[in-house]
Input
Amino acid sequence: MAAIAQIQAEGLVKDFGGLRAVDVGQFTLNKGEIRAVIGPNGAGKTTFVSLLCGRFPPSAGRIMFGGKDITAMPAHDRVALGIAYTFQITSIFGNLSLYDNVALPTQRRITLSSERSALKQSTMATLERVGLADRAQETASAQSYGHQRLLEVAMGLALAPKVLILDEPTQGLADSEITDFIALIKDVARETTVMLIEHNMQVVMALAEQITVLDGGRILAEGSPDEIRSNKAVQTAYLGG
Amino acid sequence: MIRSIVLHIVVIAGLFLIESFLLEHYAYHHGNLARILVLATYAVGYNILFGYTGLLSLGHAMFFAAGMYGCALLIRIGEWSIAPAFFVGVLCALTLGLIVGFLALRTIGVGFMIVTLMFAQSIYLTALYYNEYTRGDEGFSIPQTVRSIGGIDLTDPTTRYFAALILFSICLLMSLALVQSKAGRVLIAIRENEDRTRMLGFNPFRYKLFALVISAGMAGAAGAAYAVLFGYAGATFASVQYSIFPLLWVLLGGPGTTLGPLLGTILMFYLVDLASGSIMPGLAALVENNFGIEAPGLASAYLLLVGLALVLLVLFAPKGLLGSVRERWVPWLP
Amino acid sequence: MDLTSLLPFEMPHPALLAAGVLEGTVLAAVLALTALGLSIVFGFMRVVNVAHGEFYMLGAVLAWFVTDLVSRTIGGPPWLAFGIALMVCPLTVAAIAALCDRMILKRLNYDPEATIVATIGILYILQQLALTFYGPDARPVQAPFDFRIQLPWFGYSGYKLIVVAASIVLMLIVWLVLTRTKIGIIMRATQYDRETAQAFGIPVDRVYAGVFALGAGLAAIGAVLIVPIQQAHYLMGGEPLLLAFIVVILGGLGSLRGTIVAAIFIGLSDGIISTLYEPTLAKILATLLVAMVLVFRPQGLFGTRAA
Output
């Protein structure tokens, strides 16, 4: 089966002041794949995916989604189109219940069948999926760090996105939680394209079909896990840098 | 859900039932409460923006004044009757809210506070500038003879009380319905974390504009009602002070609670009333007798109270009374 | 043919215009001092001090008390009483401001919105205190000296020109302190990164209290200088607060250079306009301009965008 491009970027550049944070020549994310973005700290990973989901505008370049130019589209419209982003720093609504946290992205999706029961059903189903259903009425900020990360992922899932972008989702999770997380993402990937920024190589190797290595804002290498493992440039960047 | 509706019905019914009792035994408080209900309506509107959406406006008096002048000038100069003038007044506030919102919502935080302050100041100055029509700070009164709707005399204390209660109840129930709706959930989410809300696919600007326009509309309705029910319109109501008052009432009662604005308005009204009625003159006499300092200003020290209340609330009770009640005892309080 | 008749507005008499420019210069000088205080507090602390006008008022009211007390007890020439007031009042106001910072602002962790609400509270408290102990009347303070400078059209108060000169000198001193001395470096280090500054042993709390006190003190100096020209009144803080806001925002929040340029611009135009034309209309336009600048050019008209 020929790969269909889900997200494409051309000549994407982001400058902060005089600093060039991202300078990605050509980037393609194919439909249905699990892509990992790795690279040392300060490689511009978060900035790069933030450009894709529209948290800020690029300094130059073009972004296409499913063949449509979305470069000038504001972030919230991109979400409506199907690009979901979960934050690196846990960014949940701490004062609200888990239910409300997930109901919010859910209600975006089911505005047409605007019955409360449909909203409730769908929200609870998402919480069930990440294993937080029994805590639905508890306050988000009272949860453990691992549960907050899961809630963050649940909020992304609740949008039923075409592309789910996860920014360091396993950071700070315990080993047992990571195993559950890998299973969850594998399950999600059956219907969604997944792109994750990840430091934990165990997670990367378990999940990724393709890996993009960023260094100094540029794409250093791209390929399958095996290709990346044997790539000289990557080895120097990681081991020598 | 059901609990909170019942609670609000009970509060409204209570306000309805005490009317005849107050009129018979405490005519003074009867008059006060009518005024408080109108001002509390203003606070309910303010709370939608500040308490639920997290936008602190320092210029809400412009919306109150837009309603007040929109209505009162039509009655005074255009010789309109009360009902259409009232609606045009509300419309003025809504329109102003839309315009100010479009501009001011491009800024955030402190910028938003100062922009609203400046817009309100220019409206206040405009009211002074057109002194010929508005009579400036002195204001003008609306004659008793025209203050009636379809033969119902609004200057009668009981009618006036119920008119104020109806207005307040409508706005209170509207705010309850709003905060329990899906749109309300988005507003609260924006207050808690605007960036996250955007990344869940909501356009914060649109929702904030919506909240601001509703808020301005309620402020305008309160302003127009004040003109109609108490027969007076003056530029004082457009001054900075009247932008600070709803902030104070809401802070005291509990920002982000539907009943907080009412509670805060009642408490602050009586605190000031009590203070200027007995406590502060007593204090002034005390100071004069013991220290030999004449302190005439102390006798009507509402400024001190307002100032202290603001400082103490923001220092020690930023959630206000009902906010603390919700936190400790009644988690379902809307 | 008189060309001025073609102008869309009536050309004022040159004497009136000169008077307007002079009055404007005096106003601009005092305004620049006051606005500089507001700008420093915002620039270094990110605190919008709504009570700034009341510190100004307090300076003026205290000046009346001090000169009154001195002339009743010590006596002596007017310049002695005024000189004492010029020393004592700004220091007293600065001390009160430092107290406000310690007792209120610090406890709020300098949260921008909470501090605005708190300084509104301080505004009312100070106003009430002035009303209570000073009363509702406006009272004059005698100028330290009384000589007139003869201009081609009219005599002009020499004191007013001294006010202008004193303001310029004071602003230069503040400028030098902030840019050339260790105090300035410490302030900027604190502004740049509070935690790191603390780690390097800078007493951040004291720096903050000091900056807030300096801001209030500058307003108070401006007020003491102005009371021989304008009378002291408990409600006199509103006007300079609004003008200082306008100046600071047009000049670019926190930009000292922009603030001074804007103060001269606003002070002069306000002086000329209020001498010659209807001032309310000018104020309406000025407040709208400020709002629009904040909306469309938040770095100010004269400031440059911070990196």
